[in-house]
Amino acid sequence: MKLWHCSDARSFRVLWTLCEIGLDYELVLLPFPPRWREPGYLDINPLGTIPFLEDGTARMTESAAICEYLAVKYGGPLAVAPTEDDYGAWLNWLHHGEATLTFPQTLVFRYLTLEKPENRNPKVAADYLKWFLARTRLAEAALSDGRAYLCAGRFTVADISVAYALQFAETLGHLDQVGPNLRAWWDRLQQREGFRAAKAAQAV
Fold first, then answer.
1. Which residues contact 174 (CB under 8 A, 6 or more apart)?
2. Which of 24, 45, 88, 195 is the most exposed, having the fewest neighbouring CB atoms within 10 Å of its CB?
């Protein structure tokens, strides 16, 4: 198994999942953004995006899908089975983390940081930040009853998917605008051995 990764990028979801499960893997650290700064990477992944995972014949590029794949194939309690009551909630939170929360953040990042100075657009970035913050309300409400995890009464890759959006918010400097339940939950998740192992792995 081999993971192409940039420090604290979306691929961190996959790295964290690998560390939680305890799988053996090879980690290839790339500069960000790899499609510009590591041209040879396009021969491996023509999209030039990360993550990119190889596992046997599997070749995958979508972070939430890779987490689902690893959890279902190898992860035991990190997955929620179709026979469990929270199966639908698990799938929804897993994809909510990427499609609903991380997407607007990428546009904040793009129009404040990634673009050349002449192409930056603070108004667009501000609009998408409002979009992101509005969409954190669902998870904020879900954690309002003091529950430790988003679904199934245990830590799963759904927590990893949504938590990455908070990590990204911290990187972008707007974590303080997220609700208190989410911030407290994020603080707890950072104490997990799997999270700490992932952080250490990318620091090599």
1. 108, 129, 132, 133
2. 24
Number of residues written out for the chain: 204
CATH homologous superfamily for 2-78+194-202?
A: Glutaredoxin (3.40.30.10)
Fold exhibited by the domain 87-192: Glutathione S-transferase Yfyf (Class Pi); Chain A, domain 2 (1.20.1050)
Question: Which residue has 């953040």 as its token pair?
Answer: 105
Alpha helices in 22-156 (DSSP H): 34-37, 63-74, 87-95, 103-109, 122-135, 137-142
The strand pairing partners of 28, in sequence order, are: 4
If 0-12 CB within 10 Å is exposed, 13-18 middle and 19+ buried, where does residue 135 land?
middle
Task: Write down the pTM of the prediction.
Answer: 0.96
